[in-house]
Amino acid sequence: MRAVGQGRGVGKLLLIEPDGLIRGTVASVCRDLHLARVRQAGSIAMAEQWLKTGRPDAVLMSLAEGDAALDLLVRLRDGRFGCDADLPVAAMASKVDADLVARLKALEVRRLILQPFKLRDVIHTVEQLWLGAAAVPA
Prior knowledge:
Elements: E1 11-16, H1 20-32, E2 36-41, H2 44-51, E3 58-62, H3 67-77, E4 89-93, H4 98-106, E5 111-114, H5 119-131
Parallel strand pairs: 1-2, 1-3, 3-4, 4-5
């Protein structure tokens, strides 16, 4: 796995979020605070298209598209894209249950942000992605 943010500036973050206002706000904050260079995708399909040639250092993804989001994460972990299969991933969800948490943990999602969230939660999450924080707690 490549070192992120160590000696070469901020890393590249793929932000997958269907809500344009949330996506734009998160991208703007990350840019303004020099947390990451953000590539925005408004859908899982757009993210998948970009992942065919793009190489993010981390992913922050909404789970709003349900199984499609989890399927993308499975393919990412299986190494089906050009990026590192073990790159850091954080997820955003409006509701979760024990089954979803177990799936996210198995897919090595490092952080889970419950929506609605505060911007400081996103800032902290992105910072922790670069530091290699532990996986989602049980």
